[in-house]
């Protein structure tokens, strides 16, 4: 496979990823255009709506200016002034990352790895720019610089990760091998254990969201019926909520860590107390717990237990090698570093999941990323440090082909 073929195939994959991302919203909107409005409106109106949804899902801010008639119909006087919508529906960005990893792996399998990587990212950036320039109207205007940059960065992150994984991460391994032995052990343990702890908290949060959705299923269905959106409107509403599910999982993680979330200015939902007013009219938000949770503080144990468990697994892995066992100071630093890694990962996810969803009190929805990151680092770090220090199997002395426990 020559360079030109590699470049063209990578660019085609980028085009397909953009088409999938926009098509998720455009297909039902086009059906709505054809069946409900009898082709009476310009189809570009629906294209721009799908493009805005795609850009918003990739983290691009939308600046909204509603007309007086719309504001009166909504009963939201605060919407008379222009307001931003900054919350990213992460279910839109997730396919781009996953498919980007696939593109990176395919590029790494060719003799021209970086030609494929750069072609895919460049094509995606060009397409994102064209979509951004076509999406603006007098009512809704996406941020052009963000539209040119953020979707491309989301896709590029997946492509670069996939490229490294597909190449066996040789470049990273070579640079990692240049570090001193103790530093290598600490960095490897911190990255492995901290990432495992963050994934563990997210996993428990996903289960919690699923359970809450099942428990509050009747409430969610009742909210659907109240909206009276019709069949196609219900499909579009359901797609929007599916795109919001990753946000809900991250919000649940923020709840377990401790800071909780805000669903509007002056509201809070955390293990220590709940103060919610009127929430946005999305049926899935009916799964949010209401009232005082008497045993809510028990949720704070989750990141502590996960941090301790991640440390124990990391230590057992190091004890299973022929290398000398690390000292107490090295183990403690590794455990605390796990907390730092977990805090950074969870803080970044919290930052990406929060934002403004409307005017007035809806200008603050989601967790505080700094509090989530700081508390996660402390909770996971202290538990992981303890897990790295306590217990453990005795050191193994190998002699004459046999293993003996050092007493």
UniProtKB/TrEMBL annotation:
Transmembrane stretches, by residue range? 7-34, 83-102, 114-136, 148-169, 190-215, 235-257, 269-289, 295-311, 332-352, 372-392
User: Out of the domains of life, which is the source?
Assistant: Bacteria
Endpoints of the signal sequence: none
List the keywords (alphabetical).
Answer: Membrane, Transmembrane, Transmembrane helix
Q: What is this protein called?
A: Uncharacterized protein
């Amino acid at each position: 496979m020559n360079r030109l073929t590699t470049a063209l195939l990578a660019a085609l994959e980028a085009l397909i990823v953009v088409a999938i991302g926009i098509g998720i919203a455009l297909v039902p909107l086009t059906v709505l255009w054809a069946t409900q409005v009898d082709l009476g409106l310009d189809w570009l109106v629906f294209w721009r709506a799908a493009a805005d949804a795609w850009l918003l899902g990739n983290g691009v801010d939308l600046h909204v200016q509603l007309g007086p008639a719309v504001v009166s119909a909504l009963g939201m006087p605060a919407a008379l002034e222009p307001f931003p919508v900054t919350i990213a529906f992460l279910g839109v960005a997730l396919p781009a990352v996953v498919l980007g990893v696939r593109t990176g792996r395919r590029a790494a399998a060719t003799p021209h790895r970086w030609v494929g990587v750069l072609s895919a990212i460049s094509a995606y950036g060009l397409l994102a720019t064209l979509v951004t320039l076509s999406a603006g109207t007098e009512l809704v205007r996406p941020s052009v610089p963000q539209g040119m940059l953020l979707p491309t960065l989301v896709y590029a992150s997946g492509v670069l990760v996939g490229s490294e994984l597909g190449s066996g991460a040789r470049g990273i391994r070579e640079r990692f091998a240049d570090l001193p032995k103790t530093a290598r052990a600490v960095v490897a343990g911190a990255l492995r254990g901290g990432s495992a702890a963050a994934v563990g908290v997210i996993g428990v949060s996903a289960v919690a969201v699923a359970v809450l959705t099942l428990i509050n299923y009747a409430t969610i269905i009742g909210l659907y019926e109240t909206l009276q959106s019709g069949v196609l409107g219900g499909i579009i509403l359901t797609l929007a909520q599916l795109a919001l599910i990753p946000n809900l999982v991250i919000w649940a993680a923020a709840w377990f860590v401790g800071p909780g979330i805000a669903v509007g200015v002056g509201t809070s939902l955390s293990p220590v107390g709940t103060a919610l007013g009127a929430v946005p009219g999305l049926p899935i938000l009916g799964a949010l717990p209401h009232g005082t949770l008497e045993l809510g503080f028990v949720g704070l144990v989750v990141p502590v237990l996960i941090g301790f468990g991640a440390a124990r697994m990391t230590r057992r892995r190091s004890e299973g090698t022929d290398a000398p066992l690390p000292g107490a100071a090295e183990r403690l630093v590794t455990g605390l570093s796990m907390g730092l890694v977990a805090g950074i990962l969870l803080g970044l996810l919290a930052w990406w999941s929060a934002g403004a969803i409307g005017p007035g009190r809806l200008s603050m929805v989601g967790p505080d990323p700094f509090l989530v990151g700081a508390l996660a680092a402390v909770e996971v770090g202290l538990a992981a440090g303890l897990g790295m220090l306590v217990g453990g199997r005795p050191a193994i002395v190998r002699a004459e082909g046999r293993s003996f426990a050092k007493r």
